[in-house]
Amino acid sequence: MLTKQQLANITRLQKIKQKQSRAIPNQGTVINYGEKEFVVYRSVFVPYEDSILLIKKYIIKPGERVLDIGTGCG
User: Fold this and answer.
1) Which residue, of 28, 53, 54, 67, has the fewest CB within 10 Å?
2) Non-local CB neighbours of 24 within 8 Å, separated by 6+ positions
3) Are 74 and 51 in contact (CB under 8 A)?
4) d(Cα 15, Cα 18) in Å, to the nearest integer?
5) Domain boundaries of the chain, sorted by first residue
C-alpha cells in the first residue's frame, strides 16, 4: 500500500505529464529522447524512462521507420 506522500508524488508527476501532453499540437511534434527521434501526438504519452528499455533493445537502422502501436511505453 502506498503512503500518503508516495501517492502525492505520483499525483504530482501525473499532473506534470498531463500538462506536457496538452502542450503538444494536434498535428504532432518531434521529440528527441534516448538518442532517437520520435513523432508524438497529443493523444499518446511522450517517451519516458520505461521507453529507454525499448530504445536499447531494438536496433533501428538509419532510414528505417517504426510504428509503435499499443505498447504503452510512449
Assistant:
1) 67
2) 40, 41, 42, 46
3) yes
4) 5
5) 4-57
Please give the chain's pLDDT, 74 residues, in tens: 889 999 999 989 888 877 776 777 778 888 887 777 888 887 777 777 777 777 777 788 888 887 777 665 54
Q: The pTM is what?
A: 0.45
Q: Which of 32, 31, 72, 30 is nearest to 54 (CA)?
A: 72
Backbone φ and ψ of 6, nearest 5°: -65, -45
CA separation for the pair 11, 28 (Å, rounded) = 25
Alpha helices in 2-74 (DSSP H): 4-22, 51-57
